[in-house]
């Protein structure tokens, strides 16, 4: 509104009284309360955007914000997707591929495996990596389906459980393994990049206070990050964004072990819920 740009809000029946509807110039109902029938219906959102002659779609920080097929569909229909390109979203969405890309460019990653097709492969990988290990969904996030395994006899059951939850939650049963770090710091670096190859970082947020792998508190600056570590992590995060030619706002998530070694964990190719913490700290919108 300050820039003279008209805005259009979409909403489900569950949010008919939402404050943002009053702020927008136009608002359109896109479905019933269930997200699967409203906010996850990319076709409905795109049709609404075209019907009201919108130029661009802002995906927010949930639902379709990291769906490369939705970003591609926007492009194909002539809509600007406010975020990175679908190719970048897809490249970072698969954790195994993302780890391999970073490792190939000298960015440290936690010791781990490739795709695990069976419990037997998982057992062999665990022997090589060393217990305890962490089974993870390649296409997932938010800690969903992760299984910590500390002994060989628990591998088979944990592998099947992880794969089952990955398929049910993300539509992708691909599972891999990492060395389990018992008491790591979970630190994320805010990235801002333009389309001329420039990448900046805006410092870190510490989200180590978690429950069931879900973040509870964001703290910035991190009480565990020194000036030297901040510089190193920032450099790695900028390099991570540069090697995939990132051109939007995003977050590089990292782990820091008790010896202060830092590792690339994943990249969120979207604005995060927690970005407000960085905005408050830096004054950068």
Task: Write a structural description.
With 285 residues, this protein is of the alpha+beta class. The protein has nine helices and 13 strands. It has a four-stranded antiparallel sheet with strand order 9-8-12-13, sandwiched between helices. A three-stranded antiparallel sheet has the order 6-5-7, with helices on one face. Strand 1 (8-12), helix 1 (19-23) and strand 2 form a beta-alpha-beta unit.
Keywords:
9 helices, single chain, 13 strands, globular, four-stranded antiparallel sheet, about 280 residues, alpha+beta, about 35% helix, three-stranded antiparallel sheet
Overall residue-averaged pLDDT value:
93
Adjacency order of strands in the biggest sheet: 9-8-12-13
The oligomeric state of the chains shown is single chain
Q: Which class best fits the helix and strand makeup?
A: alpha+beta
Summarize the structure.
The protein has 9 helices and 13 strands. The chain is an alpha+beta fold and 285 residues long.
Write the layout of secondary structure elements.
Layout: E1 8-12, H1 19-23, E2 26-31, H2 42-51, E3 56-57, H3 68-76, E4 80-81, H4 86-93, H5 95-104, H6 119-129, E5 133-137, E6 147-149, H7 155-170, E7 175-179, E8 185-193, E9 199-206, E10 210-211, E11 214-215, H8 227-243, E12 249-256, E13 262-268, H9 275-282
Parallel strand pairs: 1-2, 3-4
Antiparallel strand pairs: 5-6, 5-7, 8-9, 8-12, 10-11, 12-13
Helix pairs in contact: 3-4, 6-7
């Amino acid at each position: 509104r300050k820039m003279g740009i008209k805005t259009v809000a979409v909403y489900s029946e569950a949010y008919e009284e939402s404050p943002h509807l009053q702020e927008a110039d136009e608002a359109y109902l896109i479905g019933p309360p269930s997200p699967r029938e409203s906010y996850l219906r990319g076709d409905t959102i795109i049709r609404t955007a075209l019907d009201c002659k919108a130029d661009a779609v802002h995906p927010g920080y949930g639902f379709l914000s990291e769906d490369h097929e939705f970003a591609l569909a926007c492009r194909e229909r002539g809509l600007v997707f406010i975020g990175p390109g679908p190719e970048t979203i897809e490249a970072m969405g698969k954790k195994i591929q993302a780890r391999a890309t970073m490792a190939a460019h000298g960015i440290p990653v936690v010791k781990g495996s490739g795709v695990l097709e069976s419990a037997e492969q998982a057992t062999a990988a665990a022997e090589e990596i060393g217990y305890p290990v962490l089974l993870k969904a390649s296409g997932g996030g938010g800690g969903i389906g992760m299984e910590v395994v500390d002994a060989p006899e628990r591998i088979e059951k944990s592998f099947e459980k992880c794969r089952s939850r990955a398929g049910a939650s993300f539509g992708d049963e691909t599972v891999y393994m990492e060395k389990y770090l018992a008491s790591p710091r979970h630190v994320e670096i805010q990235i801002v990049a333009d389309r001329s190859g420039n990448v900046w970082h805006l410092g870190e947020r510490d989200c180590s206070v978690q429950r069931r792998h879900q973040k509870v508190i964001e703290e910035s600056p991190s009480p565990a990050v020194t000036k030297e570590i901040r510089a190193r992590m920032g450099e790695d995060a900028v390099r991570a964004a540069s090697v995939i030619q990132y051109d939007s706002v995003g977050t590089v998530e990292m782990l820091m072990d008790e010896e202060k070694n830092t590792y690339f964990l994943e990249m969120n190719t979207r604005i995060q819920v927690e970005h407000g913490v960085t905005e408050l700290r830096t004054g950068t919108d």
